[in-house]
Amino acid sequence: MYRSKSWEDLGETPYSSSAGIHAASGILSEIFDTLASLNIHVDEMHCEGGGQIVLAIGDTHCLSAADNLTLVKETVFAIAGKHSLHATFAPKLSVHSPVGNSRLRLSLWQEDTNALIIKDGSQGKYGLSDVGQEFMGGIFHHLPAIHAFTAPLPHSYDTSQLSGEGKYQFWGVENLQAPLRTNRSWSSLLEGVSSLELTPFDGSANPHLGLAAILAAGIDGLHKHIHAPEPMDDDVAELDKETVRRLPGSLEEAIAALESNSVLRESLGAPLMVAVAAVRKADIEFYKGRQDMAELLSRY
Fold it and tell me: What sections of the chain are H helices per DSSP?
């Protein structure tokens, strides 16, 4: 959060500092209560450093999750403004800040059963069911084109925002540096993968379109039995850069990946693909040469 006129951080506090929460406790309490009144549960709330606050929103089915994220943003904007502050979900907080991104955690369900989980209780490959491996494989395969939906601004590809994990297409088992990773549940009854996590999902992204692209990719993986390559669980600096494919390093590259992706075009429709690409190209022109972050922060 920022003070609207000066664009100063609400507080200069370190990562996960309780002081960062205390500085905004009244506002955060109001946000929590308002979201609760909208039946949106906040699982977690902590200070990421400075004026950045992380909210983890409770799980729900796909369309409701997209709706809820939209309501969360509108609620945070409104309550911050009520207190003469400005909240932003921009992918980059300031010229010098490496933080500001968000991420998506998802699972795949068949009626009341998490389809990522191996039903016979065995560990299986990577702790994932066959369905889970293919669904993840589709997302992994189409990840470059998905970026055009989930990382929609030129600033989304700033080197401070997409350093390390954002540059290479790999996945890992609970590897925090991977753009796509699996998460495991360690309950007494379950020790398999319970969810997937996608890092490049900006707060500036349209959640409905982003989730639609991810679902289309995952469904393609199920139809074609696509499997991701072996996971990489080393530090990103240890990756063999000669063998690992690079992800889009700019919005222009993401648009090119999208325009060449026939699967997403067929699944989401050519008119939508043309519109998304046109808007992205317009944003490239709009932000070209603009170094002042004030306009970006005010728009998102």
Answer: 18-23, 25-37, 62-82, 130-141, 143-150, 207-224, 251-259, 262-268, 270-287, 294-299
CATH number of 100-293: 3.30.590.10
pLDDT band with cut points at 50, 70 and 90 for residue 275: very high
Is residue 180 classed exposed, middle or buried when 0-12, 13-18 and 19+ CB atoms within 10 A define those classes?
buried
Q: Which of 47-56, 89-98, 222-231 has the lowest mean pLDDT?
A: 89-98
The 10 Å Cβ neighbour count of residue 24 is 21
Q: pTM here?
A: 0.88
pLDDT digits 0-9 by tens, 59-70: 899 999 999 999
What confidence tens digit (pLDDT) does each residue in 188-207 have? Answer: 345 578 899 998 898 889 99
Question: In this structure, what token pair is assigned to residue 27?
Answer: 């506002």
Q: What phi and psi, each to the nearest 5 degrees, are found at residue 88?
A: -135, 145
Say how far apart CA 148 and CA 77 lie, in whole Å.
Answer: 25
* Cα separation values, 112 from 66, 109, 117, 191, 271, Å: 20, 7, 12, 18, 35
- Report the amino acid identity of residue 195: S
Q: Please check whether residue 129 is in contact with residue 117, taking contact to mean a CB–CB distance below 8 angstroms.
A: yes
Helix axes 62-82, 25-37, angle to 10 degrees: 140
Strands 180-184 and 193-198: antiparallel
Residues forming beta bridges with residue 193, ordered by sequence position: 184
Region(s) of the chain under CATH 3.30.590.10: 100-293
| pLDDT at residue 121, as a whole number | 57
248 versus 90: the higher-pLDDT residue is 248
Residue 76: phi and psi, rounded to 5, are -65, -45
